[in-house]
Amino acid sequence: MAVISAVHSVSSLHLQSHLQRLNNGEFFFSTRPRKMKVPLPCHHHHHQRPIYSSNAFGCSDRTSIIINSTSGSSTATSAAEGSLSEVEKIKQRFRTWQWKGQYSINYFVSSDSPQQLQANHPPLLLVHGFGASIPHWRRNIKILAQNYTVYAIDLLGFGASDKPPGFQYTMETWAQLILDFLNEVIQKPTVLIGNSVGSLACLIAASDSNQTLVRGIVLLNCAGGMNNKAIVDDWRIKLLLPLLWLIDFLLKQKGIASAIFERVKQRENLRNVLSSVYGNKESVDEELVEIIREPADAPGALDAFVSIVTGPPGPNPVVLMPNISLPVLLLWGDEDPFTPIDGPVGKYFSSLPSQQENVKLFLLEGVGHCPHDDRPDLVHEKLLPWLASL
């Protein structure tokens, strides 16, 4: 989830206190006054994955994971799967795709729908936000898979995908990864569904004039960029830029960055920040904390964290959207402290439906930065009819 899009109000800008907060791991700032946010770590370690036959990965959540053709094994596996959590079921179906012949990318595919429905409906690709991974969609996959083939991907540097040492992460890199995944793996016109920086990556991919495999886009609280430096038209960001540059400098010092990262990934810090960005506090359970916390111990996680926070913000959605003629659905939580609907990015997107006929916007009341996990029922209520209309 994109913890890097937030800005603190000028009334609390005192360099000494900011440096003290920096020492405490609190260096992303909210547009909501007097709410200091703790950043989320962004990377899952590689899971030890059981080896299944090729047909295991395509099986339904309602069926067994087939290891062999004997009915006894199938029955036993079905019983075992029934005792698993949704996250464990998802992890058991992870696949690996080699991107550019050198990077291992983790992905998931599932469908409960009949073959006829799959043929008539476009596949869906779910793209997580900063700090998250495929299991962050655990409350959506089963519902969506009833009528659609659902893919989900861990972007490079996140989840169980590779985190190459010294890699310089950019929004354009993730967008190209999405396009290559469409071309090499899905190979059909696909609806892209993203949250936060995942939304922005989907938007950049869809804006590529050479792409032919994007059928529509769903943006869930789209980020303005990969990090804080994106929203340069916000006067608060302009005032904060010197501090952001200082933070960038400090994070590039290995010892300082490591100390900050160790504090950031503490379970209590994660629970606090999740509670502050979710409107529905009941959704902030131990499973969610673990989904965000788990990747922080992976090799390359710290390097990826620093590269993403200190790197270029990437293309601005304000520049990208006028070139998009595909159907676009905007779902926006009205209690998002990172990309609030009354902030520069939120205001721009909320103005689009009156300017572009291909854009629809629904404001979700009492929902935070991650609507799909915060209040999945409200998201499905708007998303499913829109998908059916395609």
Structural class: alpha/beta
What is the number of beta strands?
A: 10
Average pLDDT over all residues: 79
Walk across the major sheet and give the strand order. 3-4-6-5-7-8-9-10
Q: How would you describe the shape?
A: globular
Q: What Rg, in angstroms, do the CA atoms define?
A: 20 Å
Helix content: 25-40%
Low-confidence stretches: 1-79
Domain AB hydrolase-1: 122-376
InterPro entries: AB_hydrolase_1, AB_hydrolase_fold
Organism: Vigna mungo (Black gram)
GO molecular function, one term: chlorophyllase activity
Q: How is this fold's topology laid out?
A:
Blueprint: H1 15-23, E1 28-29, E2 36-37, H2 71-82, H3 86-92, E3 95-99, E4 103-110, H4 115-120, E5 124-127, H5 141-144, E6 150-153, H6 171-186, E7 190-195, H7 197-207, E8 214-220, H8 235-251, H9 254-264, H10 267-277, H11 286-293, H12 301-310, H13 317-320, E9 328-333, H14 344-351, E10 359-364, H15 371-374, H16 376-389
Parallel strand pairs: 5-6, 5-7, 7-8, 8-9, 9-10
Antiparallel strand pairs: 1-2, 3-4, 4-6
Helix pairs in contact: 6-7, 10-11
GO molecular function, one term: chlorophyllase activity
Organism: Vigna mungo
Domain AB hydrolase-1: 122-376
